[in-house]
Amino acid sequence: MKNDSLYDLYLEHEGKVSDKWHSYLEIYDEQFASLRESPIRLLEIGIQNGGSLEIWSRYFPNGSLFVGCDIDPKCSGLRYDDDRIHVIIGDANTDETQNEIRQNSDMYDLIADDGSHRSSDIITTFSRYFSMVQPGGTYVIEDLHCSYWEAWQGGLNAPYSAMSFLRRLADVVNAEHWGDGGDIRSQLKGFERHWNLTLDEHHIALIQSVSFHNSVCIIRKSVSGPPRVGSRVVAGQERMVADDPLLRSGHEVGAIKLDLDKRLLGEAAVVDRPPSSMGEGANPWGAGAEPMEEVASTIGELRLAGYDPFKTSDFVSTIKDVRALYPEEQNPIPHLLDDAVMLRERAEVQATKISELQQVQGELIGDASKLRELTETQEKKISELRLSYERIARNPLLGFFLWLKFMVLSMLLRIPFLSSSSREKMRRSAEKRAPQRFRAKSETANSD
Ligand SMILES: C[S@@+](CC[C@H](N)C(=O)[O-])C[C@H]1O[C@@H](n2cnc3c(N)ncnc32)[C@H](O)[C@@H]1O
């Protein structure tokens, strides 16, 4: 029994029902192996039929306390032979229930949240109970697949879901590297505002690690103080590839006893400054920037209000609307968005200019090809003229005959094409010269 895996215990179990996914049991076996013989105090939020408390009490045979809490009044009927097991009925997210839980113990080595699985409850429960995790202890959240579903206040990209919160806690583990201006409360303020809760900054800063598994997140609390990357430990003398000047800064003094394991490692250097001392105050994406979920939620709210935040006109009008509603110092639109508007406007102006230039370029190309055609025609004519000029120059007689031919042809062509006015003029001058002929002609015409 003592070495049975949690899965084995579930398979053997015959008492009250417990309902967990197979992979959880393997994860817990791996994570809690070192605690199996410890006198741990365990709190489970959400116990339903109560079987998990029975199995936990067998898994940790030396466990000193197993407290289960459930909002369902039917759980008050659960009875256990083992007097280490206690059941508290009530909403875990009320002061009253939390005080009752505290009466059993102020601190717990392992707290498991298997309650409603709604994002607001998961984050609120964490904000209430992580302070009750013993230093070095563990907080587990089950069934996080619900965090991807709308009915549980989630969604893959939901800014304030339980998973978004837990991803932020992974940043908290690295808080010492955020650089200038980064404080945990301001980075998590969106969750506080959105779910109307107060986060315990002091205890959150003690998160040693956050490990994600399928549907389960395991958060470890440090034994003492916020986690630190610690000293840079450098051993050896040969620097064939990288000769970091930092490692020559007076720490290289023969053999140093490393504070990690107190063993002599020959020549070694211990550099105390973690990379966090580098600043990041000027980094536009550093701690001074609006947290991701705040930006995402602002964009989401604009969408819900019927604006398309990625359409400049909507974006600009929204910002103007919001600006009009709030005094400058309470302006809820982050500067980041202002910059985005400005950049988008500039981009649109540039795009218009580019398309105008492309149009002009097209017209110029058209003109150039027409000019080329014209030039070619002219060149052809010029070369023909040059040829005929050369022929004439070579043979003046041919020139004369050509001229004569032209003159004769023009005369011949001109006769049938005399205009009516010229013909009238010719008739009148003929009448002047022989009027009697014309008179006789008109008399003959009248007698007819
Ligand atoms: C998934 S079941 C628990 C299953 C149990 N842990 C097991 O392993 O068999 C979820 C339980 O959480 C309880 N619950 C939901 N919201 C709660 C809350 N705010 N406080 C306490 N319990 C809650 C429900 O009544 C339900 O019995």
Provide a descriptive summary of the structure in words.
The chain is of the alpha/beta class. The protein has four domains: 216 residues, Vaccinia Virus protein VP39 (Rossmann fold, 3-Layer(aba) Sandwich); 42 residues, no CATH class; 51 residues, no CATH class; 31 residues, no CATH class. The chain is 46% helix and 13% strand. It contains 15 helices and ten strands. Strands 3-2-1-4-5-7-6 form a seven-stranded mixed beta sheet, with helices on both faces. The protein is elongated. About 6% of the residues have low confidence. The site of S-adenosylmethionine (SAM) has 21 residues, from strand 1, helix 3 and strand 2.
- CATH hierarchy, class of the largest domain: Alpha Beta
Percent helix among the residues?
A: 40-55%
DSSP E strands, number: 10
Bound molecules: S-adenosylmethionine
* Mean of all residue-level pLDDT scores: 85
Strand content: 5-15%
Order of helices and strands: HHEHEEHEHEHHHHEEEEEHHHHHH
Q: In angstroms, what is the radius of gyration?
A: 48 Å
Separation, N- and C-terminal Cα atoms: 151 Å
Unreliable spans: 249-273
By CATH, the superfamily of the largest domain comes out as Vaccinia Virus protein VP39
Total discrete domains: 4
Count of individual helical segments: 15
Shape: elongated
* Largest β-sheet summary: 7 strands, mixed
Strand order of the largest sheet: 3-2-1-4-5-7-6
Instruction: Give me the secondary-structure category.
Output: alpha/beta
